[in-house]
Amino acid sequence: MSYAVKNMSEDDRELIAFRIGDQEFCVNIMSVREIRGWTTATPLPHAPPYVLGVINLRGAVLPIVDLSAMLGMKAAEPSVRHVIIVAQVKSRVVGLLVEAVSDILTIIGDSIQPVPEVSSELEKQYARGILAIDKRMICMIDLDALFPQQESEAA
Amino acid sequence: MDMNEIKEIFFQECEEQLAELESGLLKLNDGDRDPETVNAVFRAVHSIKGGAGAFGLEDLVAFAHVFETTLDCVRSNRLEPSQDVLKVMLKSADVLADLTNAARDGGFVDESRSRALVKELEALANGETPAPSVDAPKVVAKAPEPVQAAPPTDDSGFQPVPFSFDSFGDEEAEGEGEQVFDITFRPRRELFSKGNEAALLLRDLSRIGEMSINCDIDGLPALDAMDPEDSYFGWSISLKTKKAEEDVRSVFEFAEWDCELTVKAAEAAAPAADLPMVPVPFDLSALDEVSGPAASADVSAAQTESDASKMAAAAARVEKKETAAAAAAAAQTATTAAAAAGQTIRVDLDRVDRLINLVGELVINQAMLSQSVIENDNNGTSSINMGLEELQQLTREIQDSVMAIRAQPVKPVFQRMSRIVREVADMVGKSIRLVTEGENTEVDKTVIDKIAEPLTHMIRNAVDHGIETPEKREAAGKDPEGTIKLTAKHRSGRILIELVDDGAGINRERVKQKAIDNELIAPDANLSDEEIDNLIFAPGFSTADTISDISGRGVGMDVVKRSIQALGGRISISSRPGHGSTFTMSLPLTLAVLDGMVVTVAGQTLVVPLTAIVETLQPEATAIHSFGANQRLISIRDSFCPLVDVGRILNFRSVQANPVEGVALLVESEGGGQRALMVDAIQGQRQVVIKSLEANYTHVPGIAAATILGDGRVALILDVDAVVSASRGQSLKPEMSLAATG
Amino acid sequence: MKKKVLTVDDSRTIRNMLLVTLNNAGFETIQAEDGIEGLEILEGANPDVIVTDINMPRLDGFGFIEGVRRNEKYRAIPILVLTTESDAEKKNRARQAGATGWIVKPFDPVKLIDAIERVTA
């Protein structure tokens, strides 16, 4: 038995793929506003470890999330080689720190597979499916699920 | 522009008129008897009625009409605006506001209330009328004595006619067959002095049927005896038309008092040629030309040649001369006043906000530019520096000017409060007077919008709990009527709003007991009066023994405090048992910029709002005293003040910094006395643009907002009150809403 | 050539309605918010007809009409009074002041245009 591919729709056809460690992930290109280099963030007191702080994005205050740490992997040591994917999640804008952007993918046919059941709760929460392209395995991330609204509305 | 847009304008205008109405009534209530105040009140209701009629808002029209009728009695001195009368009128103003809102947003209005008020208003209008008839004033309207002349608006005459732009071209149903009317028409000189034109009347007559005209020139004197102002002609007309006699007469509607007119149906279709007069051809076609009046009848020609002095005399009638002179004088002074008042334009708020955002960016950019010039300017090129200084000055001025656009007087919010006092006082059977001061104090619109709610809550609270019942007040030797005073003023770059009641004051025994019961304080806590009073702001604290319908609503003063703090404001209370309480709110004038002290804490740059800082000092080792396990106090002029390590509180470092190596900022927080905040170094003072952290992230405990500094990096703005609270042992926890710790 | 109408009314709602109605009917419209402004505007405006409200701040319709009639240039210009007050006393006062005719509010576009046509060539 396997989990179904969650909520796939027509506009999920174009994806941006990126690398964290030796793993590859992707998000819907529609939610990506821009990709920019790393700049030092201003740390926030009492923030979870994966929140690196905030940066100035043309006058707006943008929180930067270490995606690696957030997905339960090794915390990143941000450097000039890292990039920030500026993504729109519902009404908010978040910067995702990743190692590198690798590809822009277009899904053809049924190249996307359901998430296997071995996944832990964390992976089940954010993974929408798995793509197999040229023997690479790319995990598709559901940003809305990764950043549930109530977290940001705690105030 | 379409009807919906005009309707939107109408509702906006209603809001303004309602505010005008209420403030006028309150002025009258305070004894103002200026006729212009009464006129303004009357005009407000009149204007609402007029617009409402055009949109077919019948409920609104009907109520406004009754209200207006009663107001007209006041205007014409037939009804004395006593306190009782004004009470009814203020309530009517409230209902009028409700009806307006209902007309705009749908929803219901308490009909029994409005019906009861209609009765009261009608009774007032009738009461002063010496009553030959017990009926409504409209009946008196037809009475011959002008003194008793009734309201200017006759009930029967005012029918809401829904307005529609599509209704052009509607044809009236025509009468049955054709009929011939014999008409004689002889204008008097007054007809011309009022801008009516005999030739135009004849033209209009020609449009409703077929007619033949004979001009009667018998009255024409010799040329030298002719007065160019006078009227010498008469006409006999035979008109064949399908219209009825009243339609024929209606052509002369505007002129009928200034002419001799007969209209009668001819026996049969008598041919015009039978008339016993010399036919003078009268060419109406000239009227269709633009140059019309001058080219047509002799009368018009004579008029254009008129003698100036005579004409002026005719226009400004003799019996009107004094009035006219007075009006001219009034016009003169009013013009001057208008010039002084200046002109206004209405601008969409979005546009202003966009401008403010842009100016905010400009300020940041200017700061960044200055900083990079300073960093790269090794040989001190003074012209660049001078230019930058000027740029900084200009940017600051632009920012101030832009902020001023958003500044609004607190008046509308204060006015809303007077309604709340009335309603709540009515509900709880108390007699309370609201006095407002400084209504024209200006503050940013966002601040105004956001203080309404906490203020409403506080007012309710003051009416419900603060002021005693009339019986209790009398027993205490006080005026049975309680007073609540609401004032606004500017003080050192902030707005100060004070709410003073002359009620019973805080019952400290009860407050303390309640706080002990709710485990907010230890049973043996030794608190000052001030500290006890401020316990009412503690979360979940409610002094009312039973949650009342009015100020209960499941929220307490902690919510008020939280909303004020969310605006970057502070609130405190002082109270004298038996004499009343004073709530003092201090709020920033704008939520867009802030004057801050830029400091360094554990390698991070922070901004501390300047308004919170009392003084800065360099601690000496001898002034620092350890106290208990890990508390430290600093002695300042013989008093001891707790030291708070900001870096430690914000978790920027794990061990306390050495106070001697840093700087202490002496701050005062609401109701909590002074604290010395330890920072590592002071970088300088600067005006910063406030940026929301919540927009993309979430509220951060201990942090009020963020800003962008000259180096382009984000700096956090410290929430001083929260940090002080945290230093009292309440921890800053992300899960916990920060302001609630107050 | 378009006929020019000067309207004087303190209500923004009514001003807008007049503007739309008159523009739709092919008139050129200029507007004032009260009697004082009306007299100020009048001088350079050269309107063909004036439509004025009665109840206005600063200078009411009666005062405004008297002011217009005192002006040599406009002593004979048609002035229509736009008012909710349809009773004889008010009408009479307006006439004494020098009004040409009246339109009862809330006005109906057809009647407004009719009245204007009636008093202008």
Protein architecture, described:
The complex is a heterotrimer of chains A (155), B (742) and C (121). Chain A has 155 residues and is mainly beta. In chain A, 12% of the residues lie in helices and 45% in strands. Chain A has helices at residues 67-70, 121-126, 143-146, 149-152, and strands spanning 14-20, 23-28, 32-37, 51-57, 60-66, 83-89, 92-98, 100-106, 112-113, 127-133, 136-141. In chain A, strands 8-1-2-11-10-9 form a six-stranded mixed sheet. Chain B folds into five domains: 3-166, HPT domain (Four Helix Bundle (Hemerythrin (Met), subunit A), Up-down Bundle); 179-304, Alpha-Beta Plaits (2-Layer Sandwich); 349-408; 410-588, Heat Shock Protein 90, CATH 3.30.565.10; 593-741, OB fold (Dihydrolipoamide Acetyltransferase, E2P) (Beta Barrel), CATH 2.40.50.180. Chain B has 23 helices and 22 strands. Chain C has one domain (4-119): 3-Layer(aba) Sandwich (Rossmann fold). In chain C, 45% of the residues lie in helices and 20% in strands. Chain C contains five helices and five strands, in the order E-H-E-H-E-H-E-H-E-H. In chain C, helix 2 (35-45) runs parallel beside helix 3 (61-70). The chains are: A mainly beta (155), B alpha+beta (742), C alpha/beta (121). Chains in contact: A-B, B-C.
Keywords for this entry:
heterotrimer; A: 155 residues; mainly beta; OB fold (Dihydrolipoamide Acetyltransferase, E2P); six-stranded mixed β-sheet; five-stranded mixed β-sheet; disordered C terminus; C: 121 residues; alpha/beta; Rossmann fold
In brief:
The complex is a heterotrimer of chains A (155), B (742) and C (121). Chain B is of the alpha+beta class. Helices cover 41% and strands 20% of the residues of chain B.
